[in-house]
Amino acid sequence: MATVSLRNIKKTYSNGFKAIHNLNLEIEDGEMIVLVGPSGCGKSTSLRMVAGLEATSEGDLYIGDKRVNDLEPSERDIAMVFQNYALYPHMSVARNMGYGLKNQGLPRDEIRRKVEKAARVLEIEHLLDNKPKQLSGGQRQRVAMGRAIVRNPKVFLFDEPLSNLDAKLRVQMRIEIKRLQQEFATTAIYVTHDQVEAMTLADRLVVMNGGKVEQVGPPLDLYEKPETQFVAGFLGSPGMNFMPARIQGQALLVQGDHRIDLPDMAELAQWDGRDITFGVRPEHLEACSEAEADFHLKVDIIEPLGADTLLYGHLPGSDSLMIAEQPGKRRYTRGDVVPLRVDRERLHLFDAETEQRLNE
Amino acid sequence: MIENRPWLTAVRHLVLILGIIVIGLPIWIALVASTNTSASFVSGVMPMWFGEEGLNNFRRVLTNEGRVLGVGVSASWMMWNSFIMAMVIAIGKITISILSAFAIVYFRFPFRRTCFWMIFITLMLPVEVRILPTYEVVASLGMLNSYAGLTIPLIASATATFLFRQFFLSIPDSLAEAARIDGAGPMKFFKDILLPLSVNNIAALFVILFIYGWNQYLWPLLITTDENYYTIVMVIKRLMTAGEGNVPWNIIMTTTVLAMLPPVVVVLVMQKFFVRGLVEQEK
Amino acid sequence: MHDNVVFNNKVLPYFLLAPQLVITLVFFIWPAGQALYQSFLIEDAFGFSREFVWLDNFIYLFSDDEYWNSIRVTFVFSGLVAFSGMAVALLLAAMADRVIKGATTYKTLLIWPYAVAPVVAAVIWWLMFNPSIGILAFLSWTLGHQWNHYVNANEAMAVVVIASAWKQISYNFIFFLAGMQAIPRSLIEAAAIDGSGPFKRFWQIVFPLLSPIAFFLLVVNVVYAFFETFGVIHATTLGGPGNATRTLVYKVYEDGFVGLDMGSSAAQSVILMILVITLTIIQFKFIERKVQY
To answer: What residue stretches are annotated with the ABC transporter domain (chain A) (predicted)?
Structure first.
């Protein structure tokens, strides 16, 4: 078990493409860190650099107190679970799990003992003599996890391990991974593009975009106070509604003429007359009486999900899409005009140019 | 079956059977001829049914009784030469090709492209188009009349290298990465993972290359003057010109049966690998 | 972004490549260079004198009727071998594709000729067409024709074409059959629902889908007919009668090893190399296109 430090890490490919600009991250012992972001954001590259599968162009990488930049992957005391599992097709499950230990020169009966122990934890004892081909997707996933656990590494690395599973299995394995990681209390870095997976698994979340870190913090902090418009839009489903707006005294003019009175904010004066982006999550738009309404949503599409109903529509006189999430008990029909009120505690203001958060 | 038209099915079978008969006719002729006396080929129409001389013919050819082959060595010795040639070429080509493909796919090093193109070029230079200079090189290396001369110049193979390269490229990178994390160095990865995964490809290539090696004609013709290195395939032509006027067809056909037997057996026994290996080449 | 170093060992790859590269250099590239060099020289048969003559060897070749004859013979021969071998194979594959009973047996009985050396095939067919005792010559005689490939140029050509194509049938058959079996059943079924009969379906659906394979086979067969049929000619017609079956490869051999005309033989080698290179490029253009697809 160990801490992991990434200090001023940069990665530039030979063709000049800068995959990672300047990555700084301190991961605590036993912590589960999730790197999340759209494809090409550099999350996988970062993970592979920690694994030693890709060289770092600049910066220092520590596992524990040891600088590992120049160590082979096998010398870094890590274990990795790959997206496609990367099980050796011609070896039995037991040999797959024990291959690393065998290369370390452990005696055969000790390997057998460790493999059986890990198999028991993962409930795959009955599969030990099977070949990967004979296993289901979920079972392969477990074997891949087993191969990681058996080595008892300082750090677990997960590279989108659940994306090849169907939706139901994914939820099940997500819980399993969380349980195992807590049980072993091993430091873990987990890469995914799935924000639900990211939110549910992470102790701390790292949102990346274009080779840079956008924000680091506990999942709910990021959900509640996204530092940038990117983070605000990336986390949460369906995504946050964004609209161009302007500050005028104590109020916000959204899309020209929708006026929203703002709660007291000390900074308001200095933003007076400034172009900003206003953001509100669909779940923070409440249906209200005509008198209280900030917006009137003309409903185009209704998605009843049971617990909630999603309303897709637009504001009269505008064609930009707006989504509102309402409790499922009320029925709507296409063409309804729904008066909505913005939850004043949960609105987000971003600088239109820098896309940085403005309000506290 | 989409529709059931009995007459069409009958036509299919009929055409196939006819095809098999036409294609099989030469082997019938060869087998029949190898069981007859040389006298049956002097006049009239050649025998179309088996004679009594089969065992006798094969014994005479295999032991070269009474110099029946017109050379100093027996057919069994020449089959042995052919076998060595086929085996060394097949195993040699597979070995150097799989190593080259491994280097090209799993390493990055200066001149990697140059190496790749050099191997590629061999595709465009079959022996037949550079007969004389290749002969001169082999002669100047003192490799005439030797097993080394018979085999080594034919061992380089772009086709086999490409086949392995294609196969290695189809193996996910993560497998090699997992092996690296598991502490396997390159040669250990090659031995423990790549080689076992390549077994089917190796078997398929073996069939094709064994046949290629066994059936070589021009090359042994050029570089062997010592009868001890003659192969069974090249001696047949010698027999045709040996007995001026009175061609010993029964002996020739006995020899051709012996010459085609091993490769045909290999194809039939390893049919599955062979068919797959051939079709893969196109990719 | 493919500079993922899988293994970063600096020396090992060179060791792995060394055997292949050494053999390639010594036995392929060096002789090819020699051929190119010699094609600019005139040398007497005993190697006492050599003279640099630039393109004289090539100019001489192309002003030589015999060489033009060889070119013509080679193209006729290759065309016939490729066409007849592919036509028969296509017919058999079309028949075998839809056969259920005995499919494996048919396949086995059709693929074994691949294993037979061209020269062996040639000798057997040579015997079958033998003017005095051959069974096929006899059949032709009963039909009122006196077969004699020793004097009749067309008949000599026919024998070497048949012997060469015979062996290729199994190769072509395997590819055509694999191609047909790769065509999705649903496509054929859709056509059947659209009301087209089995023959129409073959020409309108199966055949067009096979055209990439047919093209690949065409190149392979032409290359085969060009370069791998030396034994067929050498064991039977020896290029005759007259020059009727003297292909380019056979002529290179004759001029070099029998005539000992090094310069001319080398120049012919160079021309052949250019031919193979062209054919290889065509073939790879095709494969490239397929890979993208």
So the answer is: 4-235
Structure tokens at B260: 């085609």
Set of chain C residues whose Cβ sits within 8 Å of the Cβ of A55: 5
pLDDT digits (tens, 9 = 90+) for A50-70: 999 988 999 999 999 999 999
Is the CATH code 1.10.3660.10 the one for domain A4-234?
Answer: no
Assigned token pair, A302? 């209704």
Three-state secondary-structure class, residue A32: strand
Helix (H/G/I), strand (E/B), else coil: A90: coil
Cβ atoms of residues C38 and C263 within 8 Å: yes
* β A337-342/A285-287 pair status: antiparallel
Calculate how close chain A gets to B205, using CA atoms only, in Å.
20
CATH architecture of A241-351: Beta Barrel (2.40)
CA–CA separation, A194 vs C235, rounded Å?
70
Which residue from C minimizes the CA distance to B250? Answer: C127
- Containing structural domain, residue C240: 65-292
Averaged pLDDT, B55-77: 86
Number of domains in chain B: 1
Cα C216 → chain centroid = 12
For residue C130, give the DSSP letter: -
- Given CA atoms B257, B262, B266, B269 in this order, what sign does their dihedral have? positive
Give pLDDT, residue C151.
86
In whole angstroms, give the CA distance from residue A44 to residue A63: 18
**Tokens coding A16:** 């000049």
Q: Average of pLDDT values for B129-135?
A: 83
Torsion of CA C13, C18, C20, C24, to 10 degrees: 130
Query: Whole domain around residue B219: which residue ranges?
Result: 49-281
A65 contact partners, CB below 8 Å, separation of at least 6:
none
**CATH number of the domain encompassing residue B260:** 1.10.3720.10
Contact yes or no for A14/A170 (Cβ under 8 A): no
Contact C93, C202 (CB under 8 A): no
Shortest CA gap A360–chain C (Å): 41
Using the beta-carbon criterion (under 8 Å), do A17 and C1 form an inter-chain contact? yes
pTM, full prediction: 0.86
